[in-house]
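Amino acid chain:
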Amino acid sequence: MKKRVTSILLAGTILLSTSCASIVSKSNYPLSIESTPSQANIIIKNKKGMEIYKGTTPTTVDLEAGSGFFSKASYTIEFKKDGYDDKTVPVEFKLDGWYFGNILFGGVIGLLIVDPATGAMYKLDTEFINETLTQSTASVSTKELKIYDINTIPTTWKSHLVALDK
């Protein structure tokens, strides 16, 4: 009987000291990033503007869900590739429904301390980003072919002409 009471008390303590979202969800999420065309340079910055990742597409990056106590993370991804317009894409986290499981399973400790501190109360809004970059109009040069008659070319060009033999 004493062992049974001890087991029940131990199980109750474990249940009350954990949190629902921390058990079911996670604090870090993988984000797959691709672009068309591929091999675009990317820079990921957190909501404070600090660079946390630099690389090329395609890639997968682990992002933290929280950025402080009761504060969800947010990021921006900057895509850059020569000949294409730069593009910035936001990455947002949202409240995880499992967080409310603390009312039944995690208790006050999970609701007010563990999940808010670990960021497990938030989840990634999307797990995959595939951005299509648009070709830069500034890099497209218009070239034209002009055909001149020998009598209409500038005189300064005539000294550079070469006769072709038949």
